[in-house]
Amino acid sequence: MSIDMMIHNHETYGQIRYFLSDRCTNVDKIREFNHLVQNKIQADEIIMFDSVLMEMSEIEENEVQIFIREHGHKNRQILAIVVRPAIELDWEMSQKGEFEFCGYDLVDMMSCISVITDCDTQFACIKYDKLNSYGLISSYREAVNTQLDLNEMYSEHSHAYCEIVEIWRRLLV
């Protein structure tokens, strides 16, 4: 299933979806990316749910172990994505022990881009100095407050109407 089909299917909100994704880790790639966002994101690695900047393809949950065995190398990862997360999923993902919690992204669901990383840092209400080492928001409360501030302060901007996306990941090594 394509990433666009996942986004426009509202029945999948609150459900864990899995995506095979590349990584943004090497120094040159991060420098190039950070130049695009005016050096505001200070991260060792940037993780995002963004179909424009990242090569992503959806896989089924039962395919996760197959991809780990057959496609493992250090430039790939599996992202477990939850659009409109629920507390119960945090517990479920942490019990699996295979995935690491990375943080919360804010995503324009119409264009499927990250508002944090792919909007040229034009939104003053995003606290770039508070982003974690992956360039994401660590606290759900902060993600909700930022989402509300975007709607209130930039109501005329289409990217301000975004969803909170919880991101977990499993490295393929």
Entry summary:
It contains 5 helices and 6 strands. By secondary structure, the chain is α+β, with helices and mostly antiparallel strands.
Describe the structure.
The protein has helices spanning 3-7, 27-36, 64-70, 87-96, 140-153; strands at residues 16-22, 56-59, 76-83, 100-108, 113-114, 163-172. With 173 residues, it is an alpha+beta fold. A 6-stranded antiparallel beta sheet has the order 2-1-3-6-4-5. The chain starts with a helix and ends with a strand.
Write the layout of secondary structure elements.
Layout: H1 3-7, E1 16-22, H2 27-36, E2 56-59, H3 64-70, E3 76-83, H4 87-96, E4 100-108, E5 113-114, H5 140-153, E6 163-172
Antiparallel strand pairs: 1-2, 1-3, 3-6, 4-5, 4-6
The radius of gyration over CA amounts to: 15 Å
Order of helices and strands: HEHEHEHEEHE
What share of the residues lie within helices?
25-40%
What profile does the largest beta sheet have? Answer: 6 strands, antiparallel
The largest sheet has its strands arranged as 2-1-3-6-4-5
Shape: globular
The overall pLDDT, averaged over residues, is: 77
- By DSSP, the count of extended strands is 6
Strand content: 15-25%
